[in-house]
Amino acid sequence: MFLNSVVLILQETLEAALLISVLLVFMRLRCIRPFWIISAIAAGSAGAYFFALQMASISEWFDYMGQEVVNASIQLTVLLILAIFVAQNPGATHSTSKPQKDLGVIICTLLLVALSLTREGSEVFIYISGVIGHPSHAQPTLTGSGIGAGIGISAGVLIYYGLLGLPTKWIALSGLLLLSLVGGNMASQATQLLTQADWLPYSKILWDSSDGLPENSILGHLLYALFGYEATPSLLQVFSYIAGMLLISLCAHLGSRKISFSTDQKTTDHNASVNR
Amino acid sequence: MMVLGLGLVLFGHYSVAGTPVIEIEIKDHLFFPATIEIPANTKVKLLVINRDLTAEEFESYELNREKVISGNRKAVIFIGPLPPGEYPFFGEFYPKTAQGKVVVIDQ
Asked: Is the per-residue pLDDT at A126 higher than 90?
Protein backbone atom coordinates (compact mmCIF):
# COMPACT_ATOMS: atom_id res chain seq x y z
CA MET A 1 0.00 0.00 0.00
CA PHE A 2 2.84 2.33 0.98
CA LEU A 3 4.84 2.09 -2.25
CA ASN A 4 1.73 2.17 -4.40
CA SER A 5 0.63 5.39 -2.66
CA VAL A 6 4.05 6.98 -3.24
CA VAL A 7 3.99 6.15 -6.98
CA LEU A 8 0.35 7.08 -7.55
CA ILE A 9 0.44 10.42 -5.74
CA LEU A 10 3.85 11.30 -7.18
CA GLN A 11 2.54 10.70 -10.68
CA GLU A 12 -0.48 12.95 -10.09
CA THR A 13 1.61 15.66 -8.40
CA LEU A 14 4.42 15.80 -10.98
CA GLU A 15 2.28 16.89 -13.92
CA ALA A 16 0.77 19.77 -11.93
CA ALA A 17 4.15 20.62 -10.34
CA LEU A 18 5.78 21.00 -13.78
CA LEU A 19 3.07 23.36 -15.03
CA ILE A 20 2.92 25.42 -11.81
CA SER A 21 6.70 25.82 -11.55
CA VAL A 22 6.98 27.01 -15.17
CA LEU A 23 4.09 29.45 -14.65
CA LEU A 24 5.76 30.73 -11.46
CA VAL A 25 8.94 31.38 -13.47
CA PHE A 26 6.97 33.49 -15.95
CA MET A 27 5.29 35.38 -13.08
CA ARG A 28 8.73 36.03 -11.61
CA LEU A 29 9.94 37.38 -14.98
CA ARG A 30 6.90 39.69 -15.07
CA CYS A 31 7.33 40.69 -11.40
CA ILE A 32 3.81 39.46 -10.62
CA ARG A 33 3.23 38.47 -7.00
CA PRO A 34 2.97 34.68 -6.46
CA PHE A 35 -0.13 35.33 -4.30
CA TRP A 36 -2.20 34.72 -7.44
CA ILE A 37 -0.88 31.20 -7.85
CA ILE A 38 -1.55 30.38 -4.18
CA SER A 39 -5.20 31.44 -4.58
CA ALA A 40 -5.42 29.35 -7.78
CA ILE A 41 -4.01 26.33 -5.90
CA ALA A 42 -6.73 26.79 -3.26
CA ALA A 43 -9.42 27.07 -5.97
CA GLY A 44 -8.02 24.01 -7.78
CA SER A 45 -8.00 21.94 -4.58
CA ALA A 46 -11.62 22.87 -3.89
CA GLY A 47 -12.46 22.02 -7.53
CA ALA A 48 -10.72 18.64 -7.17
CA TYR A 49 -12.70 17.83 -4.02
CA PHE A 50 -15.99 18.74 -5.73
CA PHE A 51 -15.05 16.81 -8.91
CA ALA A 52 -14.15 13.74 -6.81
CA LEU A 53 -17.47 13.92 -4.93
CA GLN A 54 -19.39 14.08 -8.21
CA MET A 55 -17.23 11.56 -10.11
CA ALA A 56 -19.71 8.67 -9.74
CA SER A 57 -22.52 10.73 -11.30
CA ILE A 58 -20.31 12.42 -13.92
CA SER A 59 -19.07 8.99 -15.08
CA GLU A 60 -22.62 8.05 -16.03
CA TRP A 61 -23.14 11.04 -18.33
CA PHE A 62 -23.02 10.51 -22.11
CA ASP A 63 -23.89 6.83 -21.85
CA TYR A 64 -21.16 6.07 -19.25
CA MET A 65 -18.55 8.18 -21.07
CA GLY A 66 -18.82 11.25 -18.83
CA GLN A 67 -15.45 10.76 -17.17
CA GLU A 68 -13.60 10.63 -20.48
CA VAL A 69 -15.54 13.50 -22.04
CA VAL A 70 -15.23 15.85 -19.03
CA ASN A 71 -11.51 15.08 -18.54
CA ALA A 72 -10.77 15.49 -22.25
CA SER A 73 -12.70 18.79 -22.24
CA ILE A 74 -10.62 20.05 -19.30
CA GLN A 75 -7.41 19.01 -21.10
CA LEU A 76 -8.41 20.71 -24.34
CA THR A 77 -9.41 23.85 -22.39
CA VAL A 78 -5.97 23.82 -20.71
CA LEU A 79 -4.37 23.55 -24.17
CA LEU A 80 -6.42 26.51 -25.42
CA ILE A 81 -5.59 28.68 -22.39
CA LEU A 82 -1.91 27.73 -22.72
CA ALA A 83 -2.04 28.97 -26.33
CA ILE A 84 -3.60 32.29 -25.19
CA PHE A 85 -1.04 32.52 -22.36
CA VAL A 86 2.03 32.15 -24.59
CA ALA A 87 0.52 34.45 -27.25
CA GLN A 88 0.80 37.27 -24.70
CA ASN A 89 4.57 36.87 -24.68
CA PRO A 90 4.71 36.04 -20.96
CA GLY A 91 8.52 35.98 -21.05
CA ALA A 92 8.76 39.71 -21.82
CA THR A 93 10.26 41.53 -18.86
CA HIS A 94 8.03 43.97 -17.01
CA SER A 95 9.63 47.10 -18.42
CA THR A 96 8.71 46.21 -22.02
CA SER A 97 5.20 44.85 -21.43
CA LYS A 98 2.09 46.96 -21.01
CA PRO A 99 0.44 46.84 -17.56
CA GLN A 100 -2.89 45.59 -18.97
CA LYS A 101 -1.04 42.64 -20.47
CA ASP A 102 -0.30 41.47 -16.95
CA LEU A 103 -4.02 40.98 -16.30
CA GLY A 104 -4.29 38.57 -19.24
CA VAL A 105 -1.26 36.62 -18.03
CA ILE A 106 -2.66 36.47 -14.47
CA ILE A 107 -6.11 35.28 -15.60
CA CYS A 108 -4.59 32.56 -17.82
CA THR A 109 -2.29 31.45 -14.98
CA LEU A 110 -5.18 31.24 -12.50
CA LEU A 111 -7.30 29.18 -14.90
CA LEU A 112 -4.43 26.87 -15.88
CA VAL A 113 -3.49 26.07 -12.29
CA ALA A 114 -7.09 25.68 -11.08
CA LEU A 115 -8.13 23.43 -14.00
CA SER A 116 -5.02 21.23 -13.86
CA LEU A 117 -5.35 20.73 -10.11
CA THR A 118 -9.06 19.97 -10.40
CA ARG A 119 -8.35 17.11 -12.80
CA GLU A 120 -5.20 15.73 -11.17
CA GLY A 121 -6.35 16.28 -7.60
CA SER A 122 -9.73 14.57 -7.97
CA GLU A 123 -8.07 11.19 -8.45
CA VAL A 124 -5.96 11.77 -5.34
CA PHE A 125 -9.10 12.48 -3.30
CA ILE A 126 -10.88 9.41 -4.70
CA TYR A 127 -7.88 7.18 -4.01
CA ILE A 128 -7.21 8.38 -0.47
CA SER A 129 -10.87 8.48 0.60
CA GLY A 130 -11.33 4.88 -0.60
CA VAL A 131 -8.15 3.33 0.70
CA ILE A 132 -8.17 4.85 4.18
CA GLY A 133 -11.55 3.20 4.72
CA HIS A 134 -9.53 0.07 5.57
CA PRO A 135 -8.10 0.63 9.07
CA SER A 136 -4.88 -1.28 8.29
CA HIS A 137 -4.32 0.72 5.08
CA ALA A 138 -4.79 4.20 6.51
CA GLN A 139 -1.33 4.80 7.91
CA PRO A 140 0.80 3.43 5.02
CA THR A 141 -1.48 5.18 2.51
CA LEU A 142 -1.25 8.56 4.18
CA THR A 143 2.51 8.25 4.77
CA GLY A 144 3.09 7.11 1.19
CA SER A 145 0.85 9.86 -0.20
CA GLY A 146 2.68 12.48 1.86
CA ILE A 147 6.04 11.25 0.59
CA GLY A 148 4.78 11.07 -3.02
CA ALA A 149 3.43 14.61 -2.82
CA GLY A 150 6.65 15.77 -1.14
CA ILE A 151 8.83 14.33 -3.94
CA GLY A 152 6.50 15.82 -6.59
CA ILE A 153 6.58 19.29 -5.02
CA SER A 154 10.39 19.06 -4.59
CA ALA A 155 10.68 18.25 -8.31
CA GLY A 156 8.60 21.37 -9.02
CA VAL A 157 10.95 23.47 -6.85
CA LEU A 158 13.94 21.97 -8.73
CA ILE A 159 12.39 22.84 -12.10
CA TYR A 160 11.65 26.39 -10.85
CA TYR A 161 15.18 27.10 -9.62
CA GLY A 162 16.70 25.12 -12.49
CA LEU A 163 14.97 27.42 -14.99
CA LEU A 164 15.82 30.59 -13.08
CA GLY A 165 19.45 29.43 -12.88
CA LEU A 166 19.77 29.44 -16.68
CA PRO A 167 21.33 32.37 -18.56
CA THR A 168 18.64 35.11 -18.78
CA LYS A 169 17.96 34.75 -22.52
CA TRP A 170 17.32 31.01 -22.13
CA ILE A 171 14.85 31.19 -19.22
CA ALA A 172 11.73 32.19 -21.18
CA LEU A 173 12.67 30.01 -24.15
CA SER A 174 13.11 26.91 -21.97
CA GLY A 175 9.85 27.70 -20.15
CA LEU A 176 8.05 27.95 -23.49
CA LEU A 177 9.57 24.65 -24.64
CA LEU A 178 8.28 22.96 -21.47
CA LEU A 179 4.83 24.53 -21.98
CA SER A 180 4.76 23.24 -25.56
CA LEU A 181 5.43 19.73 -24.20
CA VAL A 182 2.61 20.22 -21.66
CA GLY A 183 0.38 21.31 -24.57
CA GLY A 184 1.33 18.23 -26.61
CA ASN A 185 0.67 16.02 -23.58
CA MET A 186 -2.79 17.56 -23.05
CA ALA A 187 -3.76 17.03 -26.70
CA SER A 188 -2.47 13.45 -26.70
CA GLN A 189 -4.23 12.51 -23.43
CA ALA A 190 -7.51 14.05 -24.62
CA THR A 191 -7.25 12.03 -27.86
CA GLN A 192 -6.60 8.82 -25.90
CA LEU A 193 -9.63 9.44 -23.66
CA LEU A 194 -11.94 10.20 -26.57
CA THR A 195 -10.73 7.05 -28.35
CA GLN A 196 -11.41 5.07 -25.14
CA ALA A 197 -14.93 6.56 -25.13
CA ASP A 198 -15.35 5.54 -28.80
CA TRP A 199 -15.88 9.20 -29.74
CA LEU A 200 -12.75 9.10 -31.90
CA PRO A 201 -11.92 6.24 -34.26
CA TYR A 202 -9.31 3.61 -33.46
CA SER A 203 -5.93 4.26 -35.06
CA LYS A 204 -3.05 1.85 -35.32
CA ILE A 205 -0.23 1.69 -32.77
CA LEU A 206 2.67 3.63 -34.24
CA TRP A 207 5.53 2.03 -32.30
CA ASP A 208 6.25 -0.21 -29.33
CA SER A 209 9.09 0.93 -27.08
CA SER A 210 7.94 -1.17 -24.09
CA ASP A 211 11.07 -3.36 -24.29
CA GLY A 212 13.52 -0.46 -24.14
CA LEU A 213 11.54 1.86 -21.86
CA PRO A 214 8.50 0.21 -20.25
CA GLU A 215 5.81 2.51 -18.87
CA ASN A 216 5.87 0.71 -15.53
CA SER A 217 9.61 1.42 -15.00
CA ILE A 218 10.64 4.35 -12.79
CA LEU A 219 11.80 6.40 -15.79
CA GLY A 220 8.64 5.42 -17.68
CA HIS A 221 6.42 6.65 -14.81
CA LEU A 222 8.44 9.85 -14.58
CA LEU A 223 8.27 10.58 -18.31
CA TYR A 224 4.58 9.69 -18.41
CA ALA A 225 3.79 12.08 -15.56
CA LEU A 226 5.89 14.92 -16.95
CA PHE A 227 5.49 14.63 -20.71
CA GLY A 228 2.81 11.98 -21.33
CA TYR A 229 5.21 9.24 -22.45
CA GLU A 230 3.44 6.20 -23.92
CA ALA A 231 5.30 3.04 -24.92
CA THR A 232 2.62 2.14 -27.47
CA PRO A 233 1.07 5.37 -28.72
CA SER A 234 -1.55 5.40 -31.44
CA LEU A 235 -1.14 7.33 -34.68
CA LEU A 236 -3.84 9.78 -33.58
CA GLN A 237 -2.11 10.37 -30.22
CA VAL A 238 1.24 11.12 -31.84
CA PHE A 239 -0.44 13.40 -34.36
CA SER A 240 -2.28 15.25 -31.54
CA TYR A 241 0.92 15.56 -29.50
CA ILE A 242 2.75 17.17 -32.41
CA ALA A 243 -0.26 19.40 -33.21
CA GLY A 244 -0.48 20.53 -29.56
CA MET A 245 3.24 21.34 -29.47
CA LEU A 246 3.04 23.20 -32.77
CA LEU A 247 0.02 25.22 -31.61
CA ILE A 248 1.84 26.42 -28.47
CA SER A 249 5.08 27.11 -30.38
CA LEU A 250 3.24 29.03 -33.11
CA CYS A 251 1.26 31.14 -30.61
CA ALA A 252 4.46 31.88 -28.66
CA HIS A 253 6.21 32.91 -31.88
CA LEU A 254 3.32 35.15 -32.97
CA GLY A 255 3.14 36.66 -29.47
CA SER A 256 6.83 37.57 -29.44
CA ARG A 257 6.66 38.97 -33.00
CA LYS A 258 3.65 41.10 -32.13
CA ILE A 259 5.49 42.62 -29.17
CA SER A 260 8.69 43.24 -31.14
CA PHE A 261 6.63 44.69 -34.02
CA SER A 262 4.82 47.13 -31.72
CA THR A 263 8.13 48.07 -30.06
CA ASP A 264 9.74 48.61 -33.50
CA GLN A 265 6.72 50.65 -34.56
CA LYS A 266 7.00 52.84 -31.47
CA THR A 267 10.73 53.35 -32.09
CA THR A 268 10.07 54.30 -35.74
CA ASP A 269 7.30 56.72 -34.73
CA HIS A 270 9.53 58.20 -32.05
CA ASN A 271 12.47 58.64 -34.46
CA ALA A 272 10.15 60.21 -37.06
CA SER A 273 8.83 62.76 -34.54
CA VAL A 274 12.38 63.55 -33.36
CA ASN A 275 13.57 64.09 -36.96
CA ARG A 276 10.62 66.38 -37.62
CA MET B 1 -12.69 -22.42 -16.93
CA MET B 2 -12.75 -18.67 -16.70
CA VAL B 3 -11.77 -18.28 -20.34
CA LEU B 4 -14.43 -20.76 -21.37
CA GLY B 5 -17.04 -18.93 -19.31
CA LEU B 6 -16.07 -15.69 -20.86
CA GLY B 7 -16.24 -17.14 -24.32
CA LEU B 8 -19.89 -17.92 -23.66
CA VAL B 9 -20.49 -14.42 -22.35
CA LEU B 10 -18.72 -12.96 -25.34
CA PHE B 11 -20.64 -14.76 -27.98
CA GLY B 12 -23.96 -14.58 -26.19
CA HIS B 13 -23.95 -10.87 -25.44
CA TYR B 14 -23.86 -8.19 -28.12
CA SER B 15 -24.70 -4.52 -27.81
CA VAL B 16 -27.25 -2.87 -30.11
CA ALA B 17 -24.50 -1.61 -32.43
CA GLY B 18 -23.12 -5.14 -32.79
CA THR B 19 -20.12 -4.53 -30.56
CA PRO B 20 -19.43 -7.56 -28.33
CA VAL B 21 -19.92 -6.79 -24.63
CA ILE B 22 -17.87 -8.43 -21.91
CA GLU B 23 -18.68 -8.12 -18.23
CA ILE B 24 -15.97 -7.98 -15.60
CA GLU B 25 -16.71 -7.70 -11.90
CA ILE B 26 -14.50 -6.23 -9.22
CA LYS B 27 -15.04 -7.87 -5.83
CA ASP B 28 -12.74 -7.81 -2.81
CA HIS B 29 -10.21 -5.99 -5.04
CA LEU B 30 -10.05 -8.87 -7.51
CA PHE B 31 -11.22 -9.07 -11.13
CA PHE B 32 -13.77 -11.78 -12.05
CA PRO B 33 -12.95 -13.25 -14.46
CA ALA B 34 -9.29 -12.40 -14.30
CA THR B 35 -8.72 -13.57 -17.88
CA ILE B 36 -10.95 -12.64 -20.75
CA GLU B 37 -10.70 -13.79 -24.32
CA ILE B 38 -11.70 -11.64 -27.28
CA PRO B 39 -11.42 -12.12 -31.04
CA ALA B 40 -8.65 -10.36 -32.97
CA ASN B 41 -9.36 -7.18 -34.94
CA THR B 42 -12.68 -6.58 -33.19
CA LYS B 43 -13.78 -3.64 -31.09
CA VAL B 44 -15.11 -4.83 -27.72
CA LYS B 45 -17.08 -3.05 -25.00
CA LEU B 46 -15.95 -3.91 -21.47
CA LEU B 47 -18.65 -3.45 -18.84
CA VAL B 48 -16.79 -3.29 -15.53
CA ILE B 49 -19.00 -3.60 -12.45
CA ASN B 50 -17.42 -2.59 -9.16
CA ARG B 51 -19.06 -4.57 -6.33
CA ASP B 52 -16.68 -3.10 -3.73
CA LEU B 53 -17.63 -0.05 -1.71
CA THR B 54 -14.37 1.68 -2.63
CA ALA B 55 -13.33 3.07 -6.00
CA GLU B 56 -10.88 1.27 -8.29
CA GLU B 57 -9.00 2.44 -11.36
CA PHE B 58 -8.93 0.10 -14.33
CA GLU B 59 -5.54 0.59 -15.93
CA SER B 60 -3.56 -1.07 -18.70
CA TYR B 61 -0.33 0.16 -20.27
CA GLU B 62 -0.66 -2.34 -23.10
CA LEU B 63 -4.25 -1.37 -23.90
CA ASN B 64 -3.66 2.37 -23.28
CA ARG B 65 -6.68 2.49 -20.99
CA GLU B 66 -7.28 4.24 -17.65
CA LYS B 67 -10.63 4.78 -15.93
CA VAL B 68 -11.82 5.31 -12.37
CA ILE B 69 -14.79 3.14 -11.36
CA SER B 70 -16.55 4.42 -8.24
CA GLY B 71 -17.63 2.01 -5.52
CA ASN B 72 -20.86 0.11 -6.29
CA ARG B 73 -21.01 1.59 -9.80
CA LYS B 74 -20.30 0.35 -13.30
CA ALA B 75 -18.21 1.70 -16.15
CA VAL B 76 -17.89 1.14 -19.87
CA ILE B 77 -14.47 0.92 -21.56
CA PHE B 78 -14.00 0.29 -25.27
CA ILE B 79 -10.93 -1.71 -26.33
CA GLY B 80 -9.61 -2.85 -29.70
CA PRO B 81 -9.54 -3.73 -32.51
CA LEU B 82 -6.36 -5.49 -31.41
CA PRO B 83 -3.87 -7.92 -32.96
CA PRO B 84 -3.52 -11.36 -31.29
CA GLY B 85 -1.59 -11.33 -28.02
CA GLU B 86 -1.87 -10.84 -24.29
CA TYR B 87 -2.74 -7.47 -22.77
CA PRO B 88 -2.46 -7.30 -18.96
CA PHE B 89 -4.63 -4.89 -16.95
CA PHE B 90 -4.73 -4.06 -13.24
CA GLY B 91 -6.49 -2.00 -10.61
CA GLU B 92 -4.25 0.94 -9.91
CA PHE B 93 -5.62 1.44 -6.38
CA TYR B 94 -5.10 -2.21 -5.35
CA PRO B 95 -2.48 -3.52 -7.81
CA LYS B 96 -1.30 -6.36 -5.54
CA THR B 97 -4.57 -8.24 -5.90
CA ALA B 98 -6.47 -6.66 -8.79
CA GLN B 99 -4.71 -8.20 -11.80
CA GLY B 100 -6.09 -9.53 -15.04
CA LYS B 101 -5.43 -9.90 -18.75
CA VAL B 102 -7.15 -9.71 -22.09
CA VAL B 103 -6.18 -12.54 -24.43
CA VAL B 104 -6.78 -11.67 -28.06
CA ILE B 105 -7.16 -14.78 -30.20
CA ASP B 106 -6.94 -15.18 -33.94
CA GLN B 107 -10.07 -16.86 -35.25
From this structure: yes
